[in-house]
Amino acid sequence: MIKSRIIIVILFYVLKLENLFAQVSLSVNAIPRRVEVIMDGVSLGETPIRDFEISSGPHDFILTKRGYASVDYSLIVNQSKSIKLDFFLNPIYKIKFTTEEKGLTFELNNNHQWTDKKIRLQLEAGDHLLRVYKRNKIVDEQTITADEPKHFKYFFKKKLSK
What we know:
The protein has one helix at 2-20, and strands spanning 23-31, 36-39, 42-46, 49-55, 57-64, 71-77, 82-88, 92-99, 104-108, 112-114, 118-124, 126-134, 137-146, 150-154. It is mainly beta.
């Protein structure tokens, strides 16, 4: 009776340890191709990645490629046979921003500010909020769409008088 209980307890712990170290097959695809995949600070190589064995539990991924915005992704991997991850990285475009206006401060995405009349930006594809200030008061607000490299010329649009 005692021997059978000991065997059952040992089997229970062996099965628990097996599950603890169970491997899960990971596949990663990305657009564009040949994106570097870093998992928990270690490079796994470039996409496509097929049948890479990982342990269950929490993992942090970073996907990077020159000319594209990186992607950070956290995942808790449950015990399973396989996981397939698909990512799309947004391109980064070079934007030349110029203005002839004087005394303005520009702010992009509630973050980056400048007063220069000419500036070069690298923007992730998509919409970006541009706020324009004069004497610390918002005088203009626009959405800039980065969908290709371009030259953005800013003109202050004054309201028509009555």
